[in-house]
Design goal:
By secondary structure, the chain is α/β, with parallel strands linked by helices. It contains 13 helices and 21 strands. The strands form 6 sheets. Strands 4-3-5-6-7-8 form a 6-stranded parallel β-sheet, sandwiched between helices. Helix 9 packs parallel to helix 11. The protein is globular, with a radius of gyration of 23 Å.
């Protein structure tokens, strides 16, 4: 008989490692933190399964940015509750929802066995073990301002290695729950970032995605370091084929960042620059820290310094007090900025934020109508921009296969390209753009390129 396997708590041992299923909602930061959860549990001897029905332990890594995301989690808790009627299974809720709601989730949902927060995931094996041995209603919420976790990540993507450079945010936009859920902005030590990137490059990942609620604020709390521009310079010297980052704050991005992007072919021709509104009055109410004029100056500077740059954005419609004139300002901003894509959302009040108690709420039907107006306008802007690329050559890093069996991937400026043939995930090909829709380009592959080649930026 083999010795029982230890799982991190003195006095607790299990002969069979539990099977764990992790479900994730929300941003890329959450997706990456789920990779960290996988890494911690695999290191401790747990087994990760792909179906909730196969699991002994279910973990939900949650989002609280909008009401719809919160409601989806509550619906999934109900699904686990039904599973518990037929067999023993534990449910843990983590992420932004649990960091803000805490023990209230335990009180509201009997199916929830424990909650954990947005950090401190290295303690999950001990937390699960304690719950399996009869401790009810466990709540382990690490202070959201703790140092960024240094844990192993079990990467879910072949192409892209997500790398955290900052966590949290200190801007306190009036609608945003992030500072309450993830704490103030903290910069990860640069040497730890460089070390993880070297490991990812050595493991064969051709693309590095730098993550942070506001990447441009990197180094504000590390005055001895040269900030985000120096970080980008030094990462480019390590040698990944492609470097991406998200997200940028219009108040904090600098000409120095734009110059570094322009100087290094590996840094992709794409910036996600969230405008949120085109109205100065609404921007001030949102506490965004910039004006419409300043935002457009950044747009124009980006295009002047980096030819072919693709700018994408976030937009909120129906913010409290938004008039027809304010909304018209947002539509005019879209027309002038000519974004490649827009992630638009109707305002969703988040408990604890200042915007949740603001007067003059916009009726739901007005919010919906404005959302569809933005989508209709942006669809035409995107299709015109994409059609202008027909006949150009682009370098495509293949990410997967469509239902029809064609390969798809992204080019340097982050646009999706659907190829008219099958390739291998991770393969880099040069393709000629042969067609376009609002959502994607269509292309014909000409030749493969060795990953790591110092290819020129943009289309040719």
């Amino acid at each position: 008989m083999t010795d029982p396997l230890p799982f991190g708590i003195v006095g607790f041992e299990m002969e069979i490692p539990p099977r764990v299923y992790v479900e994730t909602w929300g941003c890329q930061m959450n997706l990456h933190q789920s990779e960290g959860i996988h890494g911690v549990l695999l290191r401790a001897g747990y087994t990760i399964v792909e179906r909730m029905g196969d699991a002994d332990v279910v973990l939900f890594n949650t989002c609280l940015v909008r009401q719809k995301a919160e409601e989806k989690v509550y619906g999934r808790i109900g699904a686990v509750h039904k599973l518990k009627d037929s067999r023993a299974i534990l449910l843990g809720i983590g992420g932004c929802l649990s960091q803000v709601k805490g023990r209230r989730l335990l009180e509201r949902f009997p199916a929830v066995d424990f909650v954990f927060g947005t950090s401190g995931h290295d303690s999950l094996p001990e937390l699960i073990n304690a719950a399996r041995h009869g401790d009810d209603g466990l709540s382990v919420l690490s202070p959201p301002d703790r140092e960024i976790d240094e844990i192993p990540h079990h990467r879910s993507r072949c192409n892209t290695a997500m790398i955290t450079i900052t966590e949290g945010c200190s801007n306190f936009c009036s609608y945003c729950i992030v500072p309450f859920a993830r704490g103030p902005m903290r910069s990860r030590p640069p040497e730890r970032i460089f070390s993880e990137i070297r490991q990812a490059v050595d493991a064969g990942h051709p693309e590095i995605l730098l993550l942070g609620q506001n990447v441009d604020s990197y180094g504000f709390d590390r005055p001895e370091f040269g900030g985000f521009p120096e970080l980008l310079e030094r990462i480019a010297a390590i040698g990944p084929y492609r470097i991406r980052f998200t997200s940028s704050h219009p108040r904090d991005i600098t000409p120095a960042v734009l110059e570094v992007i322009a100087a290094h072919p590996q840094i992709c021709n794409h910036i996600h620059l969230a405008c949120q509104s085109g109205s100065d009055r609404i921007l001030a109410s949102m506490n965004r820290g910039y004006t419409r004029k300043r935002f457009l100056e950044t747009v124009h500077a980006s295009r002047a310094i980096i030819p072919g740059i693709n700018l994408t954005t976030d937009l909120i419609v129906g913010f409290p007090g938004e008039t027809d004139d304010d909304f018209a300002d947002s539509l005019r901003l879209l027309e002038e900025a000519q974004f490649g894509s827009v992630f638009v959302a109707a305002f969703s009040p988040r408990p604890g934020t200042r915007a949740a108690t603001m007067p003059n709420p916009v009726p739901v039907d007005v919010r919906r109508r404005r959302l569809h107006q933005v989508l209709d306008l942006q669809r035409q802007i995107a299709i015109d921009a994409n059609r202008a690329l027909i006949g150009k050559s682009v370098d495509v890093l293949i990410e997967g296969t469509t239902k029809e069996g064609f390969s798809y991937g992204r080019c340097d400026d982050h646009r999706t390209v659907i190829l008219n043939q099958h390739g291998t995930v991770g393969q880099l090909v040069t393709a000629v753009v042969s067609g376009a829709t609002a959502a994607a380009l269509k292309g014909t592959a000409l030749a493969s390129i060795a990953a790591g080649a110092n290819a020129p930026k943009g289309t040719r």
